Amino acid sequence: MSKRDYYEILGVEKNATPEEIKKAYRKKAIQYHPDKNPGDKQAEENFKEAAEAYEVLSNQEKKQRYDQFGHAGMGGASGFSGQNMNMDDIFSMFGDIFGGHFGGGGFGGGFGSSRSRGQHVNRGQNLRVKVSLTLKEIAEGAEKKIKVKKYVACKACNGSGAKDGSFSTCSTCHGSGQVTRISNTFLGQMQTTSACPTCGGEGKIITNKCTVCYGEGIVKDDEIITLNIPAGVANDMQLSVSGKGNAARRGGINGDLILVVREEEHPDLIRDDNDLIYNLFLNLPELALGTTAEIPTVDSKVKVKIDAGTQPEKILRLRGKGLPDINGYGKGDLLVRIHAWVPAKLSSEEKSLLEKLNLQPNFQASGQDQADKKDFFKKMRGMFE
Length: 385
Ligand SMILES: [Zn+2]
Ligand SMILES: [Zn+2]
Description:
The chain is an alpha+beta fold. It has helices at residues 6-10, 18-32, 41-57, 60-69, 87-98, 135-140, 284-289, 348-358, 370-383, and strands at 127-133, 142-153, 167-169, 178-185, 188-195, 204-206, 218-229, 238-241, 257-263, 270-272, 275-282, 291-296, 301-306, 315-318, 334-340.
């Protein structure tokens, strides 16, 4: 499934200001509003698409994640809330877009007036958890079970907060959850709609509170959650799992579970984006004669041939032995950086052997002709490209 770029959807540049993003979304929302395009499925899709793009780009944290990781950063395989966004969620976003409550008589005649915004819906708080992952788990993707303490729906009252479902309709708003006030201004009559103060927008009042949750509809409890973490995540990356956060008071919408990735340090390998680095120390005979070295990878070991005459600081690239890209663009490499290891202590026998070697013609660094040196420096430069 290919998803369109959020910036493209709203028709703004990547460096657009929050004000420009808001303006662009407002334009799209009016253009594709269902009341303006009755029965037009494509318009409805465009309308939802624009709302999803705006939800992400208007939120500093989500925008940053999207800029860095694209759609995959928005929750990977675990499902980002935008996909499940329903019309009610979208309409509830209009509040800050059009300023004040939407749906009143004050805004563009007829537009939205036939649509009931419905009662106020409670939303549970998001829950943040750190998940510690080894490099192997990051390389392969992982299924993790975690135990979290959070608000869950009260079983005794099914999350409603009312004992035996004892509700009565709010007498202030007659169940609509909102009150409408008409005031006279110099522009004419203005109609404003706000949440009902008596029932807090719920439209109903509990007559007999549940004794387990004291009418809240939620209780603290442990929950075991299975997480599917996509391969290629990195330290501090955040993944959101929609609906797995705290339950809302009295049967509203659950909050999200936000996972913060903690990468455990590997004993031998250093991560550099999708590449891995391994520092290999070789002594003079090994460098000069060549050898076979065992290199640790994320999940096993590989044998690598070291050519005779290998120079220190040379980097060997083991293609595809790094980490997978979070967006599925292939795999990184494992870079083996070769270092010269020099013994700090020598026996008298070792000393005399080295002194003899030091007199041999091929051990005279200054004896190399200019062409050889040039070639050597060219090679050195090549190692860093
Ligand atoms: Zn009310
Ligand atoms: Zn209860």
